[in-house]
Amino acid sequence: MAEEVSFTIDTPLGSRVTSVTYRRRGTGEPLLLLHGIGHHLQAWDPVFDLLAADRDVIAIDLPGFGASPGLPDGVSYGLSTVVPVLGALCEALGIERPHVAGNSLGGLLALELGREKLVRSVTVLSPAGFWTPAERQYAFTVLKTMRRTAKALPLPLIERMSRTTLGRTALTSTIYARPGRRSPEAVVAETVALRTAPGFEQTLAAGQDVLFTHDVPGVPVTIAWGSKDRLLLRRQGVRAKLAVPGARLVRLPDCGHVPMNDDPALVTRVILDGSRTVGGPSPRSAIQLV
Questions:
Q1: β-strand partners of 23
Q2: pLDDT digit of tens for each residue in the chain (290 aa)?
Q3: Are the C-beta atoms of residues 171 and 147 closer than 8 Å to each other?
Q4: Which distant-in-sequence residues (6+ apart) come within 8 Å of 159 by Cβ?
Q5: CA-CA distance, 162 to 180, in Å (whole number)?
Q6: CB 3.0-4.6 Å disulfide test: which of 43, 150, 207, 253 passes with 194?
Q7: 80 Cβ partners below 8 Å, 6+ apart?
Q8: Do the strands 30-34 and 14-25 form a parallel or antiparallel pair, or are they unpaired?
Q9: Cα angle 26, 118, 288; round to 5
Q10: How many DSSP H helices and E strands does the chain contain?
Q11: CB neighbours (10 Å) of residue 283?
Q12: How far apart are CA 282 and CA 272, in angstroms?
């Protein structure tokens, strides 16, 4: 069951209170899970219990997404604001330097958390920020189209579409390579999350000039990319490896942009390997990107 935590953040307008919805389960070293733009913490459902068998897992709704309210009025959704918010969240939850895994926007945030030395390890799945200007424009256009479509479709129609493989494919094939595997209930919930997210436009606007070009020294980094990612093309993984030369680069065969649903076992293994603090990730369990 999801819970909510409220905490104080520093903003250019002074101290403000914000809240974040999260789900926590398991024992072991803490592992923070960050979803992508327009999604919600349920994106991690296919791997949540698998990860919780080895980690203290905390999946959150980013501010302005899912059940988390938007940031206080006048507060930017840029990286320089959201990353400290995540640091304050960890402090409020009593988590000191968790491992972090992020998908898409969540991956970019995870890398920034790594740069700030706020986490023990970073595992990212198709992270944003390694695009060319044309690739960024393509991705943003697709995201805006998905948002408009989700807002335009009546809820009863979304529910009817979710009951068939063809309908689930129409609604979610942009982010999943195997949309038929997604449950009808999950498809309805994530479509509603996309259409109602108050932080969507501001987050997208804040990402117009974002390009991740920094190394993440001193923190183990794993970069994984779905071979069938239709939103952030897998060649961006090569650029990510060039930017973070010490990172492990992993291929996720037959996985789309949100790979947790396409191959839960593989994604779980990649995240657990990436979050090993003793001896680093096991190379035998890595699938190299080719």
A1: 59
A2: 899 999 999 888 889 999 999 999 999 999 999 999 999 999 999 999 999 999 999 999 999 999 999 999 889 999 999 999 999 999 999 999 999 999 999 999 999 999 999 999 999 999 999 999 999 999 999 999 999 999 999 999 999 999 999 999 999 999 999 999 999 999 999 999 999 999 999 999 999 999 999 999 999 999 999 999 999 999 999 999 999 999 999 999 999 999 999 999 999 999 999 998 544 444 433 445 44
A3: no
A4: 184, 188
A5: 9
A6: 150
A7: none
A8: unpaired
A9: 75
A10: 10, 8
A11: 9
A12: 10
Match 């979610």 to its residue by tokens. Answer: 172
**Which residues in 160-196 are b (16+ Cβ under 10 Å) and which e?**
ebbeeeebbbbbbebbbbbbeebebebbbbbbebbbe
The residue with tokens 């809820």 is 155
CA distance 289 to 69: 37
**Rounded CA Rg of the chain:** 18
Type of residue at 257? H
Spatial separation of the C-alpha atoms in residues 242 and 182, rounded to whole Å: 34
Q: Does residue 262 contact residue 226 with C-beta atoms inside 8 Å?
A: yes
Query: Which residue is it, tokens 């072991």?
Result: 28
